[in-house]
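Translate sequence into structure tokens.
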Amino acid sequence: MKSDGTKYVPLQISEIKQIAGRAGRYKTAADAVSDNTPKTDGETVAVVEKEKTIGWCTTLDQVDHAALKDGMSREPDPIETAGLFPPSLIVERFANYFPPGTPFSYILLRLHEISETHPRFHLCGLKEQLAIADAIHTIKGLSIQERIMITSAPTNMRDNVQKAFLRTLAECIAEGKSGSLLDLPNLPLNFMDEPAKGSREYLYTLEQLHKMIVLYLWLSYRFPNVFTTRSLAVYTKKLLEDQIEDTLTQFSHTAIRAKQKEKRERARLASEKQAKEALDQLKHDFPAPPGMSEEAKDILNDKNTFADDTPVTDDVNQYPDEPVEAEAGKPNELETIPEGNEAEQRRSASL
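Result follows.
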């Protein structure tokens, strides 16, 4: 599963194979060079057979392993169209038809609506580009070419911290002022001095700072005269990656779960111990209340003291029931009274 920005969706087959394929491509570029590269003197080195390497991939949770095996055994859906984005020259020429001050996001949107493509191609989405264009719209002094370049920057516009940092970098480009890494006001480099913690907030802040450094490096290759401390940014990026890796190693998800499970187990055992002690205390004699004699102790521990007495039955068989004899000529009142006219006649005769 992955998040598309609004909800969690399953990974596509191509995405599963792309992620799993990294396990078999762990060699460096130097190792990938062929061994039969000719030397300067024209001689060639004999090809040496190397043992084939096999990369393994797995999942963090057992429940996801079946989906991984199923995805690796299936073929991805065929790519039917290729994505295109209008070249910067076309966008710049199209922007000249609009009056000055027109939002650049509106220009991109209009160009996207009127463009026609071949059935084998499609225009790429403009969601991120439009968000960036709106964020830097109020910055004066940026040319159309510079705005096109900035709208392609790798940043997350849903994060207000990264959004503010992008505006700071865009202002450096527009005003031509120093873009030194240490002079940027809203780059929290001092957070790297904080002690490592196992909280999500700490790790999120490190990742957020890492993304900001990556954005700075991306723009430094496009605007080298403004962002001149690229070497320092590369070094800072490496320090952040090491710090993130150390935090994940020290406060891994498995270790945190094990500690939480151990804590719950200790609480359960303590609760059972308290219940057992309370039960054992009930089995022993109660002490006499303070200020009372020992006779009170005997009364409290006598189980029959407060029990209900059994009703006395000492008059059993003293008053026996005598049988009642029926008078001659009279029917027994306990007999069943006939129904209908016969019962009426008998009642009249008795009267």
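Note: Residues 253-283 form the longest helix (31 residues).
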